[in-house]
Amino acid sequence: MNAQALTAAAHTFADPEQRLDALAELSQRLLAAARARGATQAEVSCSEDAGLSVNVRMGEVETVESTRDRGIGVTVYFGQRKGSASTADLREDSLESTVEQACAIARYTEDDPAAGLADAALMAREERDFDTWHPWLIDADRAIELALACESAGRGFDARIENSDGTSIGTGASIGVYANSHGFIGRERSTQHSLSCALIAGRGDQMQRDGWYTLGLAPEDMESAAAVGRKAAERTVSRLAPRQLATGDYPVLFAAESARSLIGHLISAVSGGNLYRRTSFLVDSVGQTLFPEWFSIRETPFLMRGLRSTAYDAEGVATRESSLVEGGVLQRYVLGSYSARKLGLSTTGNAGGVHNLHVAANAGDFDALVKQMGRGLLVTELMGQGVNGVTGDYSRGAAGFWVEGGEIQYPVDGITIAGNLRRMFAGIEAVGSDVDPRSHIRTGSILLGKMTVAGE
């Protein structure tokens, strides 16, 4: 191994399989310690992370950080009484103390009828490789070089770009083991790399900021440093001299990077915790038509090199490919075993979240959607958290562009878009084929027939 590779190895794992073996052995020791203290069930999660991050601004290095993190979590059950404790210390006395603390907590908690491991029959039976391990053997000097090249490409794109909000490059590797007293042991490893650039154009109160980023599980999945810098510059310059809009009801096209937030609001509304607490506007909504009849969302946990691909969820339950929405109808909720028991239902294998959602397109690319909208608001940025999960009322700050005659005319900002999520879902007119690959929620741009836009 050359000197650069030796330096870079500090930011990944030289032998991940050996570390996974060690974590698996550790998990079994902790489970045995829990059983010895009288726990009827127990589960252990062990994780280790390594990474490198570099930040530059205006041609100068601001930070270089190398990280190594570890976490050990132990959860025990005494019947239906639960206790949890965690540590990052692998010394034997610390591990023993962690198990003892979890047991002490469980002994003093109340019985919870929904508490306990997921059913043993639901555990995943096989390990699968989804091509998620691609370490980037890059040292700090090379990372700095790439970050500076990215920022330089952006700053040199247009004379109106006079400042930078910084460029960051990061690489990380994670390994983890989850084990429980059903005999389940799951081992996973993954990498993720990113490069982002934020630029500032204009002066005084006319300044505008925007940027771009790329990420991937493998370095070759990322856009080049020059491409990221140029895209950040294009987006920043395009926002200069924004106008406001007259308040009114207009069609709204959410660009793909903004559109995934709409799907995120759906996931939150159909997730177990919000449902059993009855803090969701979609309580008792399975089987209801929420979207147009052509609309569908499918969960694909077995996608090769997917950002959230996995054979099992956070409880060891086997994942499966299934529809969340089909024919516009909500097919199921998003549940782990605890929330499922609270609702009198079965887990959907989603403890820890959803895995690679794909929103099916029914239209062409971004340009085609702009032409289809004809006249209306293109949203490229959303601000604030103005979503009421109980009622579905939606009100968020936004920026983007005004579209007239099927073409982008000028930038707009200082506006608020408002509606109700149930009506917004039903009012979706098109989903584009321009999928943004930088998220586990894979969707193209989404066109809504009408929203209230508050401007001047």
UniProtKB/TrEMBL annotation:
One of its GO terms (molecular function) is metallopeptidase activity. The keyword Hydrolase applies. InterPro entries: Metalloprtase-TldD/E_C (IPR045569), Metalloprtase-TldD/E_cen_dom (IPR045570), Metalloprtase-TldD/E_N (IPR002510), PmbA (IPR047657), TldD/PmbA_N (IPR035068), TldD/PmbA_sf (IPR036059). The keyword Signal does not apply. Residues 42-106 form the Metalloprotease TldD/E N-terminal domain. Residues 134-240 form the Metalloprotease TldD/E central domain. It is an enzyme of class 3 (hydrolase). Its EC number is 3.4.24.-. Keywords: Hydrolase, Metalloprotease, Protease. SUPFAM superfamilies: Putative modulator of DNA gyrase, PmbA/TldD. Residues 247-455 form the Metalloprotease TldD/E C-terminal domain. Belongs to the peptidase U62 family. This is Metalloprotease PmbA. It comes from Lysobacter yananisis. The gene is pmbA.
